[in-house]
Amino acid sequence: MSKKLPTRAEDYSLWYNDLVKRAGLAENSAVRGCMVIKPYGYAIWEKMQRQLDDMFKRTGHENAYFPLFVPKSLFEAEEKNAEGFAKECAVVTHYRLQTDPDRPGKLRVDPAAKLEEELVVRPTSEAIIWSTYKNWIQSYRDLPLLINQWANVVRWEMRTRLFLRTAEFLWQEGHTAHATAEEAVAETRQMLDVYAEFAEEHMALPVVKGVKTDNERFAGAEDTYCIEALMQDGKALQAGTSHFLGQNFAKAFDVQFATKDGAREYVWGTSWGVSTRLMGALVMAHSDDEGLVLPPKLAPIQVVIVPIYKTGELDALMERIRPIQQGLIARGISVKVDARDTERPGFKFAEWELKGVPVRLAVGARDLDAGTVEVARRDTKQKMTLPLADIVAAVDQLLNDIQANIYQKARTYRDQHLTRVDSYDAFKQVLDEKGGFVLAHYDGTSETEERIKEETKATVRCLALAEPDEDGICMVTGAPSPRRAYFARAY
């Protein structure tokens, strides 16, 4: 293998960027601010997508697809949403190129091909979807309407980081319409629970469920719910959001329905989404200085088998390895046999460690003759010798143990970095010396929130749903506070 990764302690940001590239997850592209997701990285995203899609469908949602382009007049119909995203929009103004008469062999925009109305490249799809829902919803019989789409979006970013912030990224966005506010709120909370379950059960990522403050709320929403996770450098990452839209988009696009008693009412809406930002969370929450540490449920390759052989022995050894491989596959375990004769075993061990494969089997003829297999687990780097006769069942159980251990390690780190403070000085000290989530009272005003952000670079991540009411005083102004908020510096 080439030189070692930078360590997390030396330079966390450099460690992350190097790891994403060297593990084959993604790389920067020829398009400034955009990334290429490489096959190994995309395989992880596909597993995320497949699991989430199953969870959406179990909760009654269907997939559809809506246009990439949004006419500016539609985009600006809901004013808060348009204002919130205006600075991030890519805009199509012309529909044709032509040869450049002043530069042979080059092209220019045809000045005669200006669009009558500019098209916004979707930064989010509420406008185009709600303009469509106007045609789909006439009566209470058409509700609820539960739609999701898997798509790409563009939010013009100049300061980018692979997976965490790029000009174009992949996501899913759910958009639902309901007859009552209560149904819409229940949908919003249900999808928050779906995201939290996915994060904890599949990503092995403990999260805090909460609601955003007015300052941090999605533009055009009445309430924004979120899941917040903690990375190994003590910074928070918003891992998913679910929005109660009230009737804002229904009124902007005149989406009304006939009630059972014949009245006309505006529908109530929600939207919710997670993106390839989850890939960044997966890397930063679990990985170490040797490479990726992937939870088995999301690892493209769960087990790698490395044959240990001398010249001329490989074919015979492969025949003896095949039953192990087939037994694991029969259990639903994804397996790769690395039989390359161009690399030594030590190189292969390091490469698969870098790529975060949860379990490695080193198999040689001498081991098989003795009825044993050497097994190494990626999360703890523990090596063990296990009986060949029980190897399939043992590996299956080991994968479950690794999944649980990765979650518990992240949970322990998170819990050790939950700090309650009562003074502004203590608040600043914890942020500078320890990091993590800081639970503190503040007066709930946008002004105080902005002041804290400006002075400490920490933001209110959420008002946690599980955090009880607790009378206190604002650490900054001394004004009354009914509960503590979760603060952190964040990505």
UniProtKB/TrEMBL annotation:
Pfam families: HGTP_anticodon, ProRS-C_1, tRNA-synt_2b
Catalytic activity: tRNA(Pro) + L-proline + ATP = L-prolyl-tRNA(Pro) + AMP + diphosphate
Span of domain Aminoacyl-transfer RNA synthetases class-II family profile: 27-295
Top-level enzyme category: ligase
GO cellular component terms attached to this protein's record: aminoacyl-tRNA synthetase multienzyme complex; cytoplasm
GO biological process, any: prolyl-tRNA aminoacylation
InterPro entries: aa-tRNA-synt_IIb, aa-tRNA-synth_II, aa-tRNA-synth_II/BPL/LPL, Anticodon-bd, Anticodon-bd_dom_sf, Pro-tRNA-ligase_IIa_arc-type, Pro-tRNA_ligase_II_C, Pro-tRNA_synth_II
Listed EC numbers: 6.1.1.15
Keywords from the named record: Aminoacyl-tRNA synthetase, ATP-binding, Cytoplasm, Ligase, Nucleotide-binding, Protein biosynthesis
GO MF annotation terms: ATP binding; proline-tRNA ligase activity
CDD domains recorded: ProRS_anticodon_zinc, ProRS_core_arch_euk
Superkingdom, natural source: Bacteria
Location in or out of the cell: Cytoplasm
Entry's free-text remark on domains: Consists of three domains: the N-terminal catalytic domain, the anticodon-binding domain and the C-terminal extension.
Assembly mode: Homodimer.
Family: Belongs to the class-II aminoacyl-tRNA synthetase family. ProS type 3 subfamily.
Task of the protein: Catalyzes the attachment of proline to tRNA(Pro) in a two-step reaction: proline is first activated by ATP to form Pro-AMP and then transferred to the acceptor end of tRNA(Pro).
Listed PANTHER family: BIFUNCTIONAL GLUTAMATE_PROLINE--TRNA LIGASE, PROLYL-TRNA SYNTHETASE
Protein name: Proline--tRNA ligase
Organism of this sequence: Hymenobacter coccineus
Taxonomic path: Bacteria, Pseudomonadati, Bacteroidota, Cytophagia, Cytophagales
